[in-house]
Amino acid sequence: MGRVTARRRVKHVTMNSAVARPETLVVEEPMEIRVNGAPVTVTMRTPGSDVELAQGFLLTEGVIAGRDDVLTARYCRGTGVDDAGFSQNTYNVLDVRLAPHVAPPDVDVTRNFYTTSSCGVCGKASLEAVQLSSRHGPGDDPTTITAQTLSQLPARLRKAQKVFASTGGLHGAALFDSGGTTLAVREDIGRHNAVDKVIGWAVEQDRVPLTGTVLLVSGRASFELTQKAVMAGIPVLAAVSAPSSLAVDLASQSGLTLVAFLRGRSMNVYTRPDRVVH
Known about the structure:
- The protein has 278 residues and is an alpha/beta fold.
- It has a domain at 138-275: Cytidine Deaminase, domain 2, CATH 3.40.140.
- The protein has eight helices and 14 strands.
- Helix 1 packs across helix 6 and helix 7 packs parallel to helix 8.
- The longest helix is centred in the middle third of the chain and has 14 residues, at 147-160.
- 41% of the residues are buried.
């Protein structure tokens, strides 16, 4: 498994001095996701929770609907050998084998082969290709959460972001139940990867659809992150920063509660405000 952080020398400059010192950086490496042996996408990610990342990606792309749709998910063997003469895995290529009843993805309409860590949606063939029909829509979910509970979640996410604390360079995503109990926290160089890892955890735990939950992201609420929440059946998406207009539109159409600017004891509730109670 690859390292999450790396050390590099840096020249730290102030108005009065310049000092050379080591700095801890977050690792960014490509990972190729294959389905039934065929390449589907390459994403720049922070190593770790790669199986969750792949399964979360496939669920939010509409390829799978849950754990029963996956037979295996494993790293591919590389060309090198270890000291004992056995083939080594390459930890940057992961293959997911689908159950016989699941159709393989159409790469042309899901995602271009290469995406970046900063934006996944820009790699889509078209906007229409993103607007997938979720099998787990949150519109009928009766979940409610108090504003007080919501206001406590960003601090809990930040406290759980161990790698961010040492590098300052990762996005975080966390899944909570409606009472504020932490279910899963993941970090990644890409905000969409962090969300895919959390949703992939739910796939592994056979907890999809994610009824009665809140997804919190450490940055803004983009269209793609909103789409991922809808695809997983999450009723409440909260962000510490701003939403986009398209994210609000999608949340409104899907029956998702979208909360943004969640800071301190204040927040903006853009859609389905009935789920946030006092």
